[in-house]
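Below is how a single chain appears once it has passed through the pipeline. First comes the sequence as given, then the structure the pipeline wrote out for it. We keep one example in the README because the format questions we get most often are answered faster by looking than by reading.
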Amino acid sequence: MEDWVTIVNKSGFAKHGELVNFLKDKHGFTHGNANTVVHFAKQSHAGAAENDTDWIAEQYKGKENLKPWYDKIMVDINKFGNDIEVSPKKAYVSLRRKKQFAIIQPSTKDRLDIGLNIKGVAPSGSVIAAGSWNAMCTHRIKVEDEKTINKDLINWIKQSYDQAG
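Resulting structure:
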């Protein structure tokens, strides 16, 4: 990891996306691995010694009305098992098991987006294809109303969790 961090830091690129593309294009990284290396290089990963920022609190500044929704969703997610790694990033919270299975992102003042990784399952109902919204997710759920936080939403997240095991 130290060697890749050095390569990233000497690349001449500054923006996260540029660095990810650099690793993918020039070194054949997958998106997820490139993203991880860049987070380490920029010391923006959750465990960084220099990173004493409470990313979750930062994410909900100006969007405080959405924080109870996040908390409510997390109560249900934490019932799935004790093997969930909650990894806050600058813009979203990554939920991992053996691999990332979901992200929760306060996208606007009125909407949470939940990204899921579910291979081989067609989106339906309120679940849509993630498309270009986030390359690390296959499915997306827009939570624009607290009523959306229901058993169906949690079942979709649980399906993603199960697949990541």
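The chain has six helices and six strands.

See the next section for the split statistics.
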